[in-house]
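The authors assume throughout that readers already know how a fold can be written as discrete tokens. Each protein is reduced to its one-letter sequence and a matching series of backbone shape codes. I therefore recommend that a typical entry be quoted early in the introduction. For illustration, here is how one protein appears when written out as sequence plus structure tokens:
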Amino acid sequence: IIFSTIFKMAGCKLVVVAAALAFIGSTQARWTGNVIVYNLLENTTMEFVDCFDSETKNGTNTIIQRPGNVAPGEVTRFFIDTGGINHHVYGFCWFKLKGIDVACDPDKPPTPVQTCPYIGWDRTVSIITGQEEITWNCETPGHYSIGDVSVTKKVGHASKNYCICEPTLSFQQCQQLCKEIS
């Protein structure tokens, strides 16, 4: 009788744990990376060039980016779909500034990125916990300022807002402006 009672209690705990894990699994976000880029340049359009990811090499299966070109005062957004990928993956999306021919500063961009600004991401997954972490980086040409704001809107989403500002603004000014509009 004691063995049967312990077995029933253990079975009940197992069912509760399985139900909790099923709930957590069902709340996992498909689009786990969400990036918004604000073009705060006065007279310069950001032209979308391409995206790349280490999974498909061309980014079309894991990245959706809209709209392509970003006029002054407008935003673009891209989403990273990591729902079907349970391992490390990284990538980039890059633009060029219409009418401005300035190299990425201070270093050459990583392969296959050809122009700036670009945004890079690196997603790692803990095999033990199943938790993902996405780290971001952004580079602009010359002395264009970058505002960088992390945003957490819901569990399972790694969100980032970037602002590309005029070179006349300091990093601190661009950062403050980006915080205000995010």
Q: What stands out?
A: Residues 89 and 180 are 31 Å apart (CA to CA). Residues 2-26 form the longest helix (25 residues). Residues 1-28 have pLDDT under 50 and may be disordered.
